[in-house]
TrEMBL record:
The keyword Cytoplasm appears for this protein: no
The species this protein was found in: Prunus mume
Keyword Ribosomal protein carried by entry: no
Keyword annotations of the record: ANK repeat
Gene that this sequence comes from: LOC107882058
Pfam families noted in UniProt: Ank_2 (PF12796), Retrotran_gag_2 (PF14223)
ANK repeats, residue ranges: 175-196
Matches recorded under InterPro entries: Ankyrin_rpt (IPR002110), Ankyrin_rpt-contain_sf (IPR036770)
The protein's name in its UniProt record: Uncharacterized protein LOC107882058
Length: 196
């Protein structure tokens, strides 16, 4: 969905772009000195200037979040009067769950980079989308590490090991193979040692 040139974001929030959207909106709110109302609990309602200042910042931050949402997201926060509650509700509903990245097609550039042996491209993608490290190919359920291991791109395997957790290494493909098992089956001692 198109947004106006003076909008806080390049794309309205939908089910496929939460990670990028949240960075854009947070950066905008930080630049406008509004992020603190999203991080803190609501001020107690009082008639003093402190509460009035908070209420004004909250309304501005909430309005920014609301106008940065697509229809589905907007419907979830329609009756919310707190920027913090709106932000938390959107995160709960749209933030990718650990071990799963929202949309495989968003991660295609990572797999293309690994396929071609281009670590610089893969690294750039992972810097912007760190959760993509656990994305799996729909057909084989292989991760980028599985692919790099299959193709024996040792330099990429070594780099991926720097950004993966132990749990990431336990991810199996359709055949129940971890990347470590694939490396061992290929007899690639360098990759096996790197993974251990």
């Amino acid at each position: 969905m198109a947004v106006s040139a003076d909008a806080a974001v390049m794309e309205l929030l939908d089910s496929s772009n939460y990670v990028d959207w949240s960075v854009w909106v947070k950066t905008y709110l930080l630049a406008q000195d509004l992020w603190d109302v999203v991080e803190q609990d609501e001020e107690e309602e009082e008639a003093d200037d402190k509460f009035k200042a908070w209420r004004e910042k909250n309304a501005t931050a909430l309005h920014t979040i609301q106008i940065s949402c697509g229809r589905e997201a907007s419907s979830l926060i329609r009756n919310t009067s707190s920027a913090k509650r709106a932000w938390d509700t959107l995160a709960e509903n749209f933030k990718p769950k650990p071990g799963y990245y929202n949309d495989f097609h968003q991660c295609q550039p990572l797999f293309d980079a690994v396929w071609s042996g281009d670590w610089d491209e893969a690294k750039q993608f992972l810097t912007l989308h760190p959760n993509a490290i656990r994305t799996r190919l729909p057909s084989t359920k292989e991760t980028a590490l599985h692919m790099a291991t299959q193709l024996e791109h040792e330099h990429i395997v070594e780099e991926l090991m720097q950004v993966m957790s132990e749990e990431d290494l336990e991810i199996t493909d359709n055949d129940g193979w971890t990347a470590l098992a694939l490396a061992a089956s290929r007899g690639n001692i360098k990759m096996v040692e790197c993974m251990i």
